[in-house]
Amino acid sequence: MSEKTVTLAHGAGGTQTNELIDSVFKAHFANPMFTGDDAAVLPPISGKIATSTDGFIVSPWKFPGGNIGKLSICGTVNDLSCMGAKPLYLTCAFVIEEGFPMDALEEIAAAMEKTAAEAGVRIVAGDTKVAGRGQCDGVFITTTGIGEIMPQAQTSGTLAKPGDAIIVTGDVGRHGCTILLARDDYGIESDVDSDCAPLWSAVETLYQVTDEIHVIRDATRGGVGTVLYEIAGQSSVGMQIQAASVPVDPRVRGVCGMLGLDPLYLACEGRLVIIAPQQHADAIVSALRSGKYTQNAAIIGTVTAENAGKVIMETEIGAQTILPQPKGELLPRIC
Amino acid sequence: MNESANRARDIITGYNGRPLRIMEVCGTHTHEIFRIGLRKLLPPQIDLISGPGCPVCVTAVGFIDEAIWLALEKGCMICTFGDLIRVPGTEMSLAGARSRGGEIRPVYSPLDAVALAKDNPDKQVVFLAVGFETTTPSACLAAKQAKEAGLTNFSLLTANKTMPNAYQALVGSADAFLYPGHVNAITGNATCIKLCEEQGVSGVVAGFTASELLTALAVTIRLLEKGEPFFRNCYPRVVKDEGNPAAIRMMNEVMEPCDSEWRGLGLIAGSGMKLRAEYAAYDARLKFDMPVITGKPNPACRCGDVLQGKIRPCDCKVFGKVCTPLHPVGACMVSDEGACAAYYQYAL
Questions:
Q1: What is the dihedral of CA A265, A271, A277, A280, to 10 degrees?
Q2: Option in B36, B109, B345 nearest A319 (CB)
Q3: Strands (DSSP E) along chain B, which ranges?
Q4: To the nearest whole angstrom, how far is the Cα of A9 from the nearest Cα of chain B?
Q5: Minimum-distance CB partner of B37 among A185, A320, A325
Q6: Domain closes at, from B298, B315, B333
Q7: What top-level class would CATH report for the domain A8-149?
Q8: Do B286 and B319 fall within a single domain?
Q9: Domain range holding B315?
Q10: Are the beta carbons of B263 and B332 closer than 8 angstroms?
Q11: pLDDT tens for residues A280-326?
Q12: List of chain A residues whose C-beta atoms are within 8 Å of the C-beta of residue B347
């Protein structure tokens, strides 16, 4: 391990900035499109373009199952994927705190390289700023992505229809739970790891089954529960889910039990909520189950005309009750 | 659900006898009962009443005022379980005190507060010790550790409460109690058995999973039908008759009984715990020579009647209008274990 750290000089634009860019970023992000000029120049895209931007400030920067670098790629890739857009290009901007270890930055860049390659996106432009000690915490990353929307894709939170099936692509609440434990505030030991993953291949799988996908959402901040409330509001429909059908890792369930949290409201970083006509639901789930990150996909409920704007839960004792709306921010800086 | 839970559910849903009032004493029970939608299954003759077993809900207004006085007048760092931060005092909550420059820190354990005192030798750290027999042992342990470490900057503001005398105040408010499993795990069952034998007060100790709650409720209904006073331990995997002697010893070593004010129930003799004379140096009231501070609850708030099962939360005039989880008027709207918060969140 080297003792080298990022200094203010690394952000001053001179020789040391070039050194940082060459040794860390270019080394990992090298591709024919990666620009040395003021802006990346990209070839024309034939279809409609989706673009999205997201900032990442997770604390701690490294956690079981990933780090802020991997998260910064997955977050934007998944946002694009949710629009039925194949992620093509990303830009990334770093704000690094003076004194941040160079080794850690290297580790973050390596994770970004690996995740971008897996997701099939190219990092084409970037920016590095160094903030004085205490002016930011470790490293903050913003990524912006461009994707090409598949011609047949038409998804939006407004398109959920009564009778549609509600599907999640895996067990819920893992990322939020992981970050909670990684902060070590609770003194709970568990080997739970983040679900952080790029999900374009999962979305491609959906469209191999059917073009009739009404809604795709990644259940990040606020978790699946929040996403369901959002869709219920946007589409003016009710959401009826069965508690027993919602996949939850037993470790996550255990931690949530101890802390009085509901896994439905803990963040995921590698899970989609999909709403599609009932007749395709089984085929979608069985196709997803052969995917790398979607093996625990499950139908968790149905969209209803009644109870518009509400999420109704059928509990483990067979009673129907409203899923309480989330209150205030439970966990700061989870992504 | 397993077969016995299914059978329990059938007993509950199929009940068609005389009206029954059953009080779940424990806040965690209240929370779980709402979460699993148990009330939705009840026939109209069965009334489940949420009792005074949420430590945040029964904490008197004056206690919040005392904590604020320590934060703002004495510059103490106040460490507290998070729920207390938003409980309204007479003029403001601890959150209000924080916005006026008070240092208020949420902690998960009293021992975290001891660690903060060690890390901040120039600060006076005060832990707000609330709760029942379940949390009091850890507050006692914190005082003990602080004493052993010779810390001079750590103290407790105590409002610890014990259940036995509170049951006395509740006698008559229900046909039977669902006793708080976690409390009985510490105290054992002697008090409840005595209540049954000497005063004819019925109740069962209940666990916290869906099937444990269903079972406890079904047993209660069946025994109420028989008409004889009863006590049953329906949580035997955790609760033993003798309780947890080590925790009781720890409590009695550091604290002793005192009178205590309960929101809604008033002053109940011998229902609280305070630090023993040997631990006077860790008693924030003595250490900071605190004047007598008496809180004035908002007159519109009827948390007191809710806690005794006299009214339902939705019968209170401010419920859901002025008083919401984001802007609570009373303590029962603050905690997840509070009856008002539960009624509000589950839209009842």
A1: -140
A2: B36
A3: 20-26, 46-53, 77-80, 103-106, 125-129, 154-158, 160-161, 176-180, 203-206, 231-233, 255-262, 266-275
A4: 34
A5: A320
A6: B298
A7: alpha beta
A8: no
A9: 303-345
A10: no
A11: 999 999 999 999 999 999 999 999 999 999 999 999 899 999 998 87
A12: 322
Same-domain pairing of B315 and B290: no
Contacts of A185 in chain B (CB under 8 A): 108
Coil, helix or strand for B8?
helix
Shared domain for B187 and B320, answered yes or no, is no
CA A103/CA B131 separation, integer angstroms:
47
Which distant-in-sequence residues (6+ apart) come within 8 Å of A302 by Cβ? A163, A164, A165, A166, A240, A278
Burial of B237 (0-12, 13-18, 19+ CB in 10 A): exposed
CATH number for the domain spanning B79: value is: 3.40.50.11740
* pLDDT, averaged across chain A: 92
**Do B36 and A318 touch, CB atoms closer than 8 A?**
no
Domain count, chain B: 2
* Sequence spans of domains, chain A: 8-149, 165-322
- pLDDT tens readout for residues B254-276: 999 999 998 878 899 999 999 99
CATH architecture of A165-322: Alpha-Beta Complex (3.90)
B12 pLDDT more than 80: yes
Nearest to A321 among B9, B326, B346 (CB): B346
CA B37, chain centre distance (Å):
22
Nearest chain A Cα to B36, which residue?
A315
> To the nearest whole percent, how much of chain A has pLDDT over 70?
97
Same domain, B116 and B181: yes
